[in-house]
Amino acid sequence: MSKLIVLNLGKGNLQQGFSTVIAQLWQTDVPTPMQFTGGLPAAPQLERLYQRWQQMYTALYTSLGWRSRNIADFEIDEEDVTHISQAEFDNLSQELQQNLNTWLNSSLFLNIDRKLRTQLLPNEEIRCIITAESDQVLQLPWCLWHFFNDYPQAEIALSPPEYARSVKTNPQKTQGKVRILAILGDRQGIDLEKDQNLLRQLPNAELKFLVEPNRSELTEQLWKSGWDILFFAGHSSSQGKGRMLLNSGETLTIDQLKYGLQKAIAQGLQLAIFNSCDGLGLAQDLADLHLPQVIVMREPVPDRVAQEFLKHFLALFSQGKTLYAAVREARERLQSLEHDFPCATWLPVICQNPAEISPTWQDLCGQRLGLYLPRPNLRQLPLVFFNSLSVTLIIGLIRLFGGLQPLELEAFDQLMRLRPKEQPDSRLLVVTITDQDIQAQGQEPRQGSLSDRYLNLLLAKLEQYQPAAIGLDIYRDFPVSANQPELAKRMQQSDRLIAICKRADPKYDPTGISPPPEIPETRLGFSDFVEDNDGVLRRHLLAMTPNPISSSCTPASAFNVQLAFLYLKKQGIIAKFTPNWDLQLGNKTFPRLQNRTSGYQSIDAQGSQILLNYRFSPSVQAIAPQVTLSQVLNGQINPNALKNRIILIGVTSNSSSDYWYTPYGKNPSEIIPGIIIQAQMVSEILSAALDQRPMLWVWSQWGDICWIWGWSLTGGLLAWYLRKIAYVSIAVTVASGTLFGLCLILFTQGGWIPLVPPMMSLLLSSTIFISISKKLQKL
């Protein structure tokens, strides 16, 4: 995880020391910093050593004939430097490094050093910004501080003590392109072709080259919208005032480009690279304009060193390295040149506005600044896997003991309600017996909702239109009256009439309801439904083993199954149950529910049960066309609506107790008559056999566990990779939406896969990992 150290030396200088040094440590996900205080003693000898080093460095590169990118050679004091050797310069460089670290190891600074090391890990990426009023202390080669040896992913940057965020005007920007304004100044004595070629090799870059431009040409381009990077290669110097040589006769300062630069910064300029000599003065002037980042050379730079640094930096930065990581690696790779160019690794330095975010190449390509993702810590991957497995185990155990069943059934209902509407099943017709139908029978003797006379009239009327099957969903545990022999004969001999009885229930109904005495057992079906603890019908009870001892209702199959099988037989499709009580329709077999099936845990799965795949068209009650008893008897129906149909006869009177809750609603106004539920069940079997409409299926327990673990691992990986709470929250929200969408899509295809457990594991795994990683950072 990226961390930022702002080391504010405040007022003071090397002659007097720094009485108050404040170190602020910023963490990526924490809005406020940790702060430590200390001081630094006076170090006049360090100032003299650095001045001596600068003189010898200048004299050495002059005596060796380096091709430099400086505007003019420095004047060398012959009294101080007469005979320069590289060995002497190396000794001085080593002495300077030792004195710098002795100064930073002082007792006044020790508190800051210890507190920082307590909070930081060696593998973390760290940006360390030094701010001070003294230009002399900022010139020191801070990269030699031993702290950076212990933290190989840390890099230094410099800043003046006052800084502010620049005001952006949100310019139009070419998405996916990094816009670079490249200035190639006077090339006398140096080779700028290589710089130009390196820039041309950048991916996703839009380049504008200004070759030895004049002031007006440069100013005009600065006022154009959308530059991301300003690049300068050529001669420059910070002696007295930062200056750069545009062409053989024109030298400019930052002040002379002030308004154009302010406009470019306001329109999104993020980074300036001065691949030229002695650029700290230029960086200081650009800091006054609040430019976010500048990369300069702190001293005169040999032409070859400048080219090598640029080559490595551009390659690393454009390939995804952060700005600081790219500068450090490119700077350290200059060590291979130090035999010919001593102290080459000291030269490149970042000048950073602490109020601005350091961009990545991807940010400059048009993404929003601030979405920097630190390089994930690969050593934490085992923790990610362990965390995801632990969360999966916890969720699995809670689920195993039924703790999630109510939530999973609610999710089932929600998915059911979100499915697209279907057309009604035209193979069915429902004849309802309403309150008006019951009253219309007058004083006719009856023991239930339908008198023997009216039942006979209804059956006679229906049979003349040759329906495929007639299902009588009315209890008749009494014989036909003696004055209706035609009805008794019809019930005994009809090959298409199916009647019902009710199984005994030891807990709720120990006697059950006997079948009509006239109906043979082959044309009987039980009417029992299986409702869940919340009173909702989600399962379809197809068959049960008969128990003649405890109940007079002995058919093995449900009423709706008998009707469906009779219809399918006439269609030439064999429908039966396997020895394991699985439903077989033609050559397709549908496994029955087990006591642990998807969201169900430890249910009573006796007999043969499947999930009830409701047809919503455009409501649960609109499963099939419906007519009343009176309409049938009065001839108010189309005969074609009866022929070869399955006719279901049932009571919808308000006085009936045969009403049920479905996944489509639990309000009293949303209860459904039992005859409609029977029609739904018949339609489910017919549609699976004839229309290839899928029945609801589930995964095995192991399939569910793997699915839950996969989302738990996803949550952990998102937290591991993104780290920042805001980013993780967005990613987890998107992942949750994706999970819900996948579950809904599969549900429309018949698959009920876990939704609540993987959702919980996704959230829990990401939350726990973020919490653990934060604690590890504090160790």
Entry keywords:
779 residues; alpha/beta; eleven-stranded mixed beta sheet; six-stranded parallel beta sheet; 37% helix
Q: Overview of this structure, please?
A:
- This protein is α/β, with parallel strands linked by helices and 779 residues long.
- 37% of the residues lie in helices and 18% in strands.
- It contains 23 helices and 30 strands.
- An eleven-stranded mixed sheet has the order 3-2-1-4-5-14-13-12-8-6-7, sandwiched between helices. The protein has a six-stranded parallel sheet with strand order 18-17-16-28-15-27, sandwiched between helices. A three-stranded antiparallel sheet has the order 9-10-11, with no helix packed on it.
- Strand 19 (530-531) and strand 20 (537-543) form a beta hairpin.
- It is elongated and about 140 Å long.
- The model is unreliable at 73-81 and 367-372 (pLDDT under 50).
Please compute the radius of gyration using only Cα atoms.
42 Å
Question: What would the principal axes of the Cα set say about the shape?
Answer: elongated
Distance between the termini: 14 Å
Mean of all residue-level pLDDT scores: 91
Helix content: 25-40%
- Contiguous helical run count: 23
Low-confidence blocks of residues: 73-81, 367-372
Portion in beta strands: 15-25%
> Could you say which structural class the secondary elements and strand pairing correspond to?
alpha/beta
Number of strands: 30
Major beta sheet, strand line-up: 3-2-1-4-5-14-13-12-8-6-7
Sheet having the most strands? 11 strands, mixed
